[in-house]
Batch of 4 targets.
Target 1
Amino acid sequence: MPTIETDVRGFVTDNFLFGRKNVSLAGDDSLLEQGLIDSTGVLELVSFIENKFKIIVEDDDLVPDNLDSINRLIAFIETKLDEAK
Amino acid sequence: MCGIAGIQRFDGQPIGREMLDAMVATLDHRGPDANGVELRGAVGLGHTRLSIIDLSGGVQPMVLEDDELVVTFNGEIFNYIELRQELIAHGRRFATTSDTEVLLQAYAQWGEDCVQHFNGQWAFAIWDARRQKLFLSRDRLGKRPLFYTVSGKTFLFASEVKAIFAHPSVSKAIDPVGLDQLCTFWSAQPPRTIFAGINLLPPGHSLTVQDGKLTVAQYWDLDFSETLDNVSARELEEQLLDLLTDATRLRLRSDVPVGAYLSGGLDSSITAALAKDLNREKLCTFSVEFENPEFDESVFQQEVVQRLGTEHHTVRCSHDDIGRIFPQVIRHTETPILRTAPAPMFLLSKLVRESGIKVVLTGEGADEAFGGYDIFKEAKLRRFWSRQPESRVRPMLLKRLYPYMKNIQSQPPAYLRAFFGVKPQTVGHPFFSHLPRFELTSKLKAFFTPEVLAATFDNDPLTEAEGNLPMAFADWDDFSRSQYLESRGLMPGYILSSQGDRMTMANSIEGRFPFLDHRVVEFAAKLPPRLKMAGLDEKHILKNATRHLVPDSIRQRSKQPYRAPDAQSFFDTDSGIARFEYVDAMLSPSAIADAGLFDPEAVSKLVEKARSGAAIGTKDNMALVGILSAQLVVEQFVNGRPVDVPESACV
């Protein structure tokens, strides 16, 4: 069964890294600092989270603390899913 | 307007006529009215002509027997009437009323300095038999193209690369360093091109070939060292209007009717209005309309048409249209491009041709000279913000900058800060204004194959470009610096070439640019920056100087850059199907692997993203258009297999 991490990593790899294997992305690497995300990348990311996990991302949630690394994304999604329970 | 080509053999062997004919034949679209070649032993000059001035007397190549000079000339010397008088006063005698003869006589009189006397747009080559010297020159700002190469013991030049490639000794390959530059600045940096060994003479430069040696020399550059600080704004507005009027007057000189493009923006409205004022006869205007409302400006175009009372012609452009003509467009740009925006310009010049007009005025150059582009505003805001990096309010100004970009509008402040925020180490960087663009464009390099990365490893485009800046650059203010970078970079490299000369000449149309009269450009460079960008009001002085010419709604509308649909032109995002077969063929993993420039797997992921309509960002769209066009360059020029899409084809 796919975990949140596989989904998130898969999305980031396919959409921002275009599957390149020569780039390794650690869980805590900043997507901004790695230059992986541009101004539309945030929107792509948010649409993905909303559609995939059926959660609502509020305006106040849109901060790098929640979205800027794979680990932060996982933690953010888990919190949101817990809240919804 | 015309096409030129030529050969010089350093081994002294005579030039075969067939060889030169073959080169000239590839330039037929640039000059369908006549062509000719002139052979002088080891030198041959060829020409293909679009007749505009002195329809009967301007045949080329033109020979001045007494002075043993032969010329092949593409372009116009707009002040030829005044120069002719001046040359007659010097005792020179004329046989025709053409500007071509003025060019030749000017060279005979003043030598290589003749170019300093010209007001115009040109690329030419003069064979000076007495001195056994070939003299080539390109206009100050890069309106007309001039490529050259040395292949073995043969020097070759032409208006377009395809003419040089017609010579069997020239090898055809992509230059990875040129590609690397293109994926930084939007174009290779002259003299380098996207093709290995093929050079482009930089704007404002001349080239002499003598005793088998090539010497390139700069005869003009844009200079911001002097500022007109002690003249009132009102007086400067008057001087500007006078200059623009005179620049337009010279550009209406023609023995065939002159039309005008209308984009719906300020600049082309001004040139059309001035043309209408100066020439009370009927004026034909031409516009592109887009089916996609995000790009369409027809409401504004109509306002100008109503105001000026022109005979207006329009062509409507759909996603399919752009996709269908794209391979043909790339045959003319002869370089990968990162936007589809040239394609609608191809449809527009076709419309002009079908309407029986050969010459059009356009508004090109105003955004560079008067600070119209968003990049100038963005740089100003980023600098403003960098003085208070922690400010929460300053980043919000950036939203005002891009009212037409939905992505930016919905951007959370924390991310605006991350994207536009100024890193302390970049504040003093000579490319401060352009770094965000260069960095964004450089993301394309993530798709390069290891081979391309290895071939460009030692080459840093930014460092190299920094080394080519003029000495005085460091002393100029920030705004002037950004203007210089734009005017010497993107303008000749993309706007005037891929989107300009190549798209007009593809349909045998000559473009003329009143804002690019060098007197206007030099005057604008002396204007205080506060008169160009007053607060965040772009082209401030230009708007004021032309308030009587252009409707208020056009002067006051927020600036919309000219853009066209990118990924959507190649994929129907509802069905996920490529609109044309060539799109799948060019982007297939095997075609990508064969070309060897980009990583096949990464391209596949990008293509899947575009197919599903998820490629919404600038970066993805630039990558898709850049890779597809690079593939089309390889297929059509390196492999020599034209990609043609039948008029009715649509998957």
Target 2
Amino acid sequence: MTTTTDHPVQEASAAPPPAPGRSPRLTDRRLALVFISPAMLLLLTMSVFPLLWALYLSFTDYSATRDAPADFVGLGNYTTILTSPEVWQRALTTLVYVTGAVALQTVLGFGIAYLISRRARGRGVLTTLFLVPMMLSPVVVGLFWKFMLDAQFGVINSMLGSLGLGQVEWLTRQRTALLSLIVVDTWQWTPFIMLIALAGLTAVPAYLYEAASIDRASEWFRFRHITLPLVWPLLLIAVMFRAIEAFRLFDLVYILTSGGPGVSTETLSFHVYKVAFLGFNTGLASAYGILMVLVVIVLAQIYLRYLNKLKEG
Amino acid sequence: MAITIDEAVPGPATDDAPPARRRGGRGRMVVEVLLLTALAVAMLFPVLWMLETSIKENRDVYAVPAKFFGFDLTLDHYKDVFVARGGGRSDLSGSFLNSVVVAGASTVLATVLGVPAAWAYSRFTLKAKKDQLFFILSTRFMPPVVVVIPIFLMYRTLGLIDTKLGLVLIYAAFNVPFTIWMMKGFVDEVPAEYEDAAMLDGYTRLQAFWRVTLPLLVPGIAATAVFALIFSWNEFVFAVFLTSSQEVRTAPPAIAGLIGGTTVDWGLVAASAVVFAVPVLVFAYLVRKHLVAGVTLGAVRR
Amino acid sequence: MRYLQRAGHRSLPGRRARLATAAILAVTALAACGGGDGGGGEAEAADGPKAPATIPELTDDPLTLSFIWFEWPPAQALEDFANAEYTKERPNVTIEVNTVPNANWHDAMFTQFAARQTDFDIPILDSQHIGEAVTNGNILDLTDFVDENIDVDAYDPYLLAAYGQYPQAETGQRDEDASLYGLPLLGDTWTMIYRKDLIGDEPPETWDEMIDAAQKCQDENPGVSGLAFHQANGSDAAAVTYNTVNGVYGGNLWNSEDKSIEGVINDEAGQKAMDVLVNEMKPLTAKGSGNWFIDEVNAAVAQGKACIAFQWIAAAGGLLDPAQSTLGTTEDEILDTLGFATLPTQDADVVPLGGMGMHISAYAPAERQAEALNFMKWFEQEDIQKKWAAAGGVPARTDALESPEFLEAGPFNQVYADSVSRMRDMWNVPEYAQLIDIENTNVNAALNGAKDPEEALDDIAEQQQQVLDSSGGGL
């Protein structure tokens, strides 16, 4: 958050030779300012300013609906949140969800990519088909899975029934409800990992395999020592992206379980929503949100570090 | 170079095919094909079921056990998406129209603001450029449900709650980081020497950008804009919290509103989901060459 | 409303520039901005905005009167009815009933109230929302208007109180000194729906008999479950279910005098009710019914999957639609199998009060507030109430409730008329949204085995008490 647009231009790029009879440095500096500042202004107004406002509110007992002026409560809101067992319970739920979903889609996504990369024909069609879930709106995905997972009329239980298996209460039992969220998220986002893993797999030069083949290396050896090291960095990026996205999850919970049964599938995002819009405890909800943003920023930092390492390596 | 689907696959059909195929034998290949088929069926089944439900009579929708075949076909659900029960335009079709306006306008805004900034970031050496770019990307990672609280307070001071303009602005703000990151990659691919040559011919830097680089960027801009369009089109959280009236509501909250009445018309839900998804799938197909960059906000390109 | 917002837009660039400047300034600068927003509200809640005793002069220019409600058939019925009938008297007026998803209903209204700018003129509040709206000065005080224009003797006093009075009325009564902030729009309560072909023509009379009948029916008819009722953790679904059983077994939700919940809701009767709900009723429901609300219960009944079901009357109309039902190909055939009855009694004779009243947004422009008052006066006339009944609405005036227009309009209308004297509401306090969420999630958890029922009830008592004691603060 320390960025300013005050001195965006230090010097012109070294590459272009200066055009004759002009002062390109000044022109470039002004041009960069003119080109960058509108976008920055929008981000400052719509992202930074609200965030600073939330930061200020997080130290107050302000409520958006009550006609009382805001009083400073210091770090009160933060201690309320960090010492609340309810919040830690949601954090645990979120952790289980993020870990489960991301692990499952990484394994599946990589597996599918690997299988596709070994096919000679129909790869384009296959890949395109696999990508469909990722393009759908979470609303559509949530609604439809709610219909399919319905214990009575849902097609999933109907199929289990014809296999001679009993009905499963997908959305109304503690364990299965969280599992259902993980399954649905995995269904939607496995293609994401697959797409990126596929990009990595193509980058493995064929001559490496040939060399290994001459050495009569085992298939596992080839996978472990040639394929994986080359795909790994890309896969890590994909995992980071998914982890951050999953951490923010709101819409799927809202539609699929609305946090139930009880509060057992309430993620942090969903809990913030309740604090903010049921009790209208705006100050408290702001502190909650700021803490979540901090977590996301830390994750994004880690992610970018990997990205840089990748670029350098 | 952005990865395309067709490139994203090694060419085993040629003579540098993976050795496994030569040695592993048919058995293994059959297993692999079966596995892939099973996975494809599992991934596509919900989509097919959605299509099927959208053309079923309501009483077949609730049939137990589920009817996979042999149901009566009807297109009534699709009619209901667009035409109100008593005739006239349905509320849902109004929401689709709102979605078109909001997603379209926010995409235009994000593109107009983002493309020049991306060019500047690509061409000039700026102070703390990496930090600036990281900052820009990080705004994209804030949980929407958190951002919506201060945005809500700000909008109510500005009178932007429940307006299309409010949605357009917030979507643009969410798409600008993406546009900058994605476009920077495209600009990087256009050699700076082209502009230098133009400037030697007497163009100013601005003219060089406008006349030389920009035309070369058009395909990239189109791809970037399509992704921004998809993000705005599918967005739910801001739409549901910042709008409430029929005149402003976009399609995602409208579709979510189809359940929670006294009866749920799953056929209608399915039909509207299909209608809602088709433009996205068509657009995604158009930009399939840039999918990897698109879904990673331009961070992964190679 | 569009006009108001346009006016807002005009000052936008200046505002935005100011905001952008502020963004770069330190946090202290924000204090002024945020604080100014919080402090500079409407008139004090204690003496909130008041409607005049007489209706001001109405405009003859075209005018759209906007309602906000949630998505369900009565909303469409109201829009059609008002546009057909009210325009006979006021041809320049168009009625628009905007709807939001049920789960969003409270948020949609109160976020706009919080913005002190509404795109609706007549919010249709749930009876328990009144406290929050009044405390924040969001709706007009109609006391003087009602005194002057409404024949209060034509109503059951509790109906008038439940949809308008604040502070909340004692169950069954109206406090004539308290202010009124709304008028009844749509009455509602639960009806018991039972399968005449499976359990006989006579409905069970006590709660215990009802459970026995459901058990017997379930045993005799494989594939059909004994009971279907609301269990979801959204809206007020699971909470109303518990509250109903609590009432039937003689419990109380709270003591409104000293605002105590702890020790009241979880007293012996309360525990008994929770026990009956979780250990006797829940086992008779369909597997996976733990997230059912209105539409799922309707679907179960229409698909012939439930012996006995409980449903809001206003939401039961769809059950008679042969297109949605497997119980018959005509409405008469369906009515041969489905019976509608008032709720059984046990230790006490209590049914849940549902339905909603009309209120007037304090932020609507004066000419539309005047039109809204005129609409209310028009709506509460005897003949209009009867027409509303015939159009599928549930009126509140006693004469309309007893009229053949109402009683013959639907098979469940007699149930409503018989239930009026037995109704009980929940807490009508500003903290309602939090209280209902606590109860919903805990009852839902108990019903789905995520929490021990006794523990769930004690948690409800403790957490709700905390919310009341801290006036809604805390998590």
Target 3
Amino acid sequence: MSLLNIKNLSVRFGDANAVPVVDGLDIEVNEGEVLAIVGESGSGKSVTMMALMGLIEAPGIVKADQLQFDGHDMLSLKGKQRRKIVGKDLSMVFQDPMTALNPSFTVGYQIEEVLQQHLGLKGKAARARALQLLERVEIPAAASRLDAYPHQLSGGMSQRVAIAMAIAAEPKLLIADEPTTALDVTIQAQIMELLLDLQREQNMALVLITHDLAVVAETAQRVCVMYAGQAVELGHVPMLFDSPKHPYTEALLKAIPEHSLGAKRLATLPGIVPGRFDRPHGCLLSPRCPYAQADCKAQRPDLVPHAHGAVRCFYPLNLNSEVA
Amino acid sequence: MLSFIARRLGLLIPTFFGVTLLTFALIRMIPGDPVEVMMGERRVDPAMHAEALHRLGLDKPLYTQYFDYIGNLAQGDLGESLRTRESVWHEFTTLFPATLELSLAALLFAGTLGLIAGVIAALKRGSLFDHGVMGISLAGYSMPIFWWGLLLIMFFSVWLGWTPVSGRIDLLYDIEPRTGFMLIDTLLSDEEGAFVSALRHLILPAVVLGTIPLAVIARMTRSAMLEVLREDYVRTARAKGLSPARVVFIHGLRNALIPVLTVFGLQIGALLAGAVLTETIFSWPGIGKWLIESIGARDYPVVQNGILLIACLVILVNFIVDILYGLANPRIRHQR
């Protein structure tokens, strides 16, 4: 049985008729697996994971046929029961480390808080473990950083602290929501490497939300491509990179600068993600899709499984070029 | 931190001179002099008038008077009251505990109630409670203190008879002033019912004096809380699986307190100004009432030095608040 099993998840803000930000999403993550969720801004990547964590607040409405994590139904779990899982078996690292840490408390305090909450560690034992964690996330002079305040740390250092906090209770699933977006390039690679090291070492599952397809290619086993709140393609690495089935996936790959070497302009998909007022009746990508046919604009396609994944398109690409 | 304290202390000197100059000039701009006031309605013989002024040293040129005043201050001599012949310092220290007791009670009232109301209003944003608290606090802030005091006296003291109209304690008790705080002195004394009486006397003036600070603190707490609860680190705290109480009070309120503390400090100055009115309305024997009476009597030394002492107090309190601010906000503490 898979560790995380989400079926038909939808998240809306406002009333039940509001346009869904996440629309009928299915996601499955196995133990120890790395799943990447990619898609442009506003496609619902972060909101999906926030819904799982229970971080969607009113007026947000979360609905799903199934929202199962490690045998628990996260939708029906309330209050205390839910908090026993969130932060312990299921934890999250956020995008902007400079604002994700509380400015009024020391780094040590914020890590020890998790240890006390979930493992019952207090005093010296908690402090010793917090120090170990800081050392594990490769913070130099870790002992002296325990008493540092977040404003005294750099962005990369803060993200390491946030990671230490997230892995403090040895989670089964770590969600990293664009963990390197706010950092500069040299630090990005280090943080990704750290996350993957930890993932392998603790055999935890990792959901990596990212824009960076190069990172996906190097790290993930499976990929979920999201567009306007829907999964448009699911697939394994490297098949998905070699032969993308969905026009949107193909467009994303084409937009990688390395793929446009020698060209004058970067290959891009014209237009923007549909908003609440211009959501198409048919396929959500149809207004921007270079391959769109008449029925694409009339009807919305379903996510249809194929040999190595699934694709939400009436006219998937590369189906015949499939080798393996 | 040390250079910060030194800088603040350095600022004290010009402030100090400014206050002496202002009070010295202002009290002399009011028509009339101490002798006239003492003589009252009776006709004053000009020769006697001049003789009395000479005895008080008030016939000298103003600048001489000012330099004498500063010279005495430099020697730590605050002079004596023209009316009572008591030293100003002695009168001040006798009356100040009453004002301090009233102000602390008002702050306690405003601080606790303001924080609680502000936090609940922020958590239940847009609810009836939120609108209610904000509406009432706007009304409270706009209410003139003397009018509000009279309303409360009329309602609670006159109509309902719940609280006494004025003073610090019933006349039938004779409490030996040990600390100057009536609540503590009555507890130390063995007079039965004295403590309750002192408490009943304290409630209404404390509520009146605390109303404006209460309104300000409640509104400030609400807006600071709303801002803080949207912060990323509050989301992080929730993602850690912490209890809602911990998220709100430890991670939220701790940060929301920083701006509230600033406002709190500013309110202490306002509180002493409000004490003048409140003490007069409730015949509370503190420095506010003392100053009002001294101004009426043109008691120059008392007015000058009483105000100077209050100014020093406000400066001291703001100084303490600045240091507290550094304690509450690590980002300030570590600045050099």
Target 4
Amino acid sequence: MSEATARPSGTADKGPARAGGAYQKLLAFAGLMVLVAGFSLASPSFLRTDNIISILQATSVNGVLAVGVTLIIITGGIDLSIGTLMTFCAVVAGVVLTWMGAPLPLGVLAAIATGALVGLVSGTLVARAKIPPFIATLGMMLVLKGLSLIVTGTKPIYFNDTEGYTAISQGSVVGRLIPQFPLPNGVLVLFAVAGAVAWILGRTVLGRYTFALGSNEEAVRLSGVDTGRWKMAIYALSGGIVGIAGLLISSRLNSAQPALGLGYELEAIAAVVIGGTSLSGGRGTVLGTVIGALIMSVLTNGLRVLSVAPEWQTVVTGVIIIAAVYADQLRRRGAA
Amino acid sequence: MNGLVRMEGIDKRFPGVHALKSVDFDLRAGEVHALMGENGAGKSTLMKCLSGVYQPDAGRILIDGQAVALPTPKAAQDLGIGIIHQELALMRDLTVAQNIWIGREPRLSFGRIDEARQNAEAAAILSRMNLGIDPRTPVSRLTIAHQQMVEIAKALSYRSRVLIMDEPTAALNDAEIAELFAIIARLRAEGVGIIYISHKMDEIRRISDRVTVMRDGAHVGTVAAAETPIARIIAMMVGRELTDEKAAIPDLSAAETALEVRDLSRGPELRGISFSLRRGEILGFAGLMGAGRTELARAIFGAEPADAGRILVHGREVSIRSPADAVREGIGYLSEDRKHYGLALGMDLRANIAMASLPRHADAIGRIDEQALGRIARDYIERLRIRTPGDWQEVRLLSGGNQQKVVIAKWLLRDCDILIFDEPTRGIDVGAKAEIYRLLGDLAAGGKAIIVISSELPEVLRLSHRIAVMCEGRLTGILPGGASQEAIMELATQREGAAA
């Protein structure tokens, strides 16, 4: 999606640079609508309130992860450690809350801080030690997977003693106001994170440099910008967001499951790609990523409602990823 | 008349730009037809229409008198139209022969490649060009000049009867240019039609038969090269006569010293360079390719810091280990390669102009003041006369001269008062050049201290108040402005002892 690329600033909403981006966003959104329409025609239960809520709930963890990694992908990097980092952050929350008996806010803070710290380490490896992001975060992915298992002794940590922990994701502030539509808090968290990141990307110096790094890192460096520092900040921010995902998933499971995590990174990257963000950097939007994550959960849910076997759901998801990127390529060729 | 190519009424529009306005162009067999015009005049767009990259909105293209459709570059290639790009498109790790035959290798059974035949046919083409290159040499081991000739060989291997050359001599030295021209002469004698895009007047006079000038997307005129004075061609390009001014040398004896470099060294590339630069002064750096001028600029700017030596800015010693350090001291660097080192091409003018000074235009939480930046960007667009539909335009869509102005704006906004220009007019056409020269003069008059590195002696002479000359990593002398070309060349070739 070139919208935020061409005009990450966006005060003057005009000019040819804008038209293509709006069109692409429309395309992803139209794809989502087609899926929703198709499934609701195929099964009357698809559009029921409880099913819609369950789709949104299922989107929250992957959506938050995907929004976080969107930042890194726009710089032209990649982060393969987000899945196991999410688990590690959940484990840290478990240690702080269950084993140490600390109050809830402290556990929340610990999880987010852990994510940001690990992100900072990855960012340092990439920016200062000049290790390619793929390798640095591949290593980090394995390190974190091992650490989670070591810390927990491979056993889950349950949050039974922490009052209100499950409410982070499962409770519903909205439901208290509108009982007919008990939207879980996890979905609100996704919207809040997405809104915040979209704001950062569109309005702040950090956001502008995120696009600039992905567009031409050497030119940014030769503009006298300490590119390493900004890159580290971006990885740390992304890590903090992964910490939030760790809270969401452990809240939903009421436990930190140390064996979980591997595979989530690819689901998140898939959502980013479906949303039109370029893996070569410089282009991408948060809204696109959220739509991408929604497309993935609508697919999974819809196919399940239609009683398609889980094996086939995976195949279809794969095909959709390729089709989405292909559609984007076609559009770009048309625009050139 | 032996008409090989005719383009009639070619019209092409892009969003916001009418790139080609009903342009006519023709090429005869066995002629070198120079295509000239300022950047943004439409030369490249016209050639992209001829080579199947763009589709014209109106008009028709005839080859041998037959109207043809060129929907793809391949279609153009099949009709014998070959293009040699300014940026070389070779696979560096493959051999010369492999590059020439890429995509249509002679086959043996089971899909094996007939390397022997491939090498033999490549050798035949190379010898037709009178080139002594072994077709089995990896391209990465060839000089840029020879890589370019491999591109030409590749085009010839498609039995091209039309060759489009886009600034083929930009990276070549005099001997290499002579070699290239000899090849062009051979091809012309064989009846190949050559369209030659260049900004260098002397080259045009040397090799071309006719010259077509374009301006603002329109065909201005086609003239015989031998009979038309250069001043007339330039006037056609810019729409007015240019005078060949020399720099007026101001009295700077009272001016403050802005930059002082003492014994700057790095490996064999830079050896004990010392000089000083005053406010309001333009110090030109002359020298041959590889003399170490760009290396010096990058060392002062911290892009590749020096190993030894001292740098003083406004009399205060500073430590410059990175571009960030240099910019903090008010030093800006404009690379010869704007696209790779100066601009984020996919971003708009506003973002590029603000690239070095974003944090200054943001509040405590990092929120950018877009309104102010928009105002600033539009102000620079006006002051530097950047031709663009607006500050939201992606800089990749600007011409070279206008891109250069965006980089200048970036450093002006950052309040840099020491500016290092590395080949400030590379790839920029005559009219825009004059504008850049005037801009540099204005900047110096306004108190900026300016270093200009240029491989074009007339440019150095035209701009510089003093001229520093380098050879093999050493500063061999500093001459007063207006020095003779002979004096500069003598210093530029003053090698150390018997070495090298």
